[in-house]
From TrEMBL:
Main location, first listed in the record: membrane
GO cellular component: plasma membrane; type II protein secretion system complex
Family per similarity comment: Belongs to the GSP H family.
Phylogenetic classification of the source organism: Bacteria, Pseudomonadati, Pseudomonadota, Gammaproteobacteria, Chromatiales
Name the UniProt record assigns to this protein: Type II secretion system protein H
Signal sequence annotation: none
Record has Membrane as a keyword: yes
Xref: SUPFAM superfamilies: Pili subunits
Occurrences of domain General secretion pathway GspH (ranges): 46-126
Membrane topology, record value: Single-pass membrane protein
GO biological process, one term: protein secretion by the type II secretion system
Length: 154
């Protein structure tokens, strides 16, 4: 008489629950760091976009040989405008993250020679205020980014 031995393959319910428990612990440890990384990237993106907007306004003022303004609008919206043409907007910028606050960028005039209204623009994240960045716009038109408030603007 032959005996057939059935070899069971697969995982037991206990083994599966142990693996799922370990995976859940690893995810719960990694998730806060990942969310913080996402917030930092959005903050950096906002800083870079505002810097690019200022550089665009300055290059347009020099290229067109006309004054160009950066004007703050409602809800985190900024416009690069030509004031001598009924404030015609030539570019706009909208913050994509409501947790990012920009202060100090209400109106910046850029002359046809590239000179600018001095401004200290703070860009901060509501949950990470210690990571704020400042765009420092000098009368010469130079722009710097720093991690502390702007001083000696002119």
């Amino acid at each position: 008489m032959k005996h057939h031995h059935h070899i069971q393959q697969g995982f037991t319910l206990f083994e599966l629950l142990v693996v799922l428990g370990i995976a859940a612990i690893l995810v719960s440890l990694a998730l806060p760091a990942y969310l913080q990384l996402i917030q930092q990237e959005r903050h950096t993106q906002a800083v870079n976009q505002l810097q690019a907007m200022y550089k665009f306004a300055r290059s347009e003022a020099i290229k067109r040989n006309k004054q160009v303004n950066i004007v703050a609008g409602a809800g985190g919206n900024w416009q690069v405008e030509l004031p001598d043409q009924q404030d015609r907007s030539i570019r706009s910028f909208q913050l994509k993250d409501a947790a990012i606050a920009v202060t100090g960028l209400d109106l910046v005039n850029v002359s046809q020679a590239g000179f600018a209204t001095p401004a200290s623009v703070s860009i901060s994240h509501s949950q990470h205020t210690d990571a704020a960045k400042w765009l420092c716009i000098f009368p010469s038109g130079q722009l710097t980014i720093q991690s502390q408030a702007c001083t000696h603007l002119g």
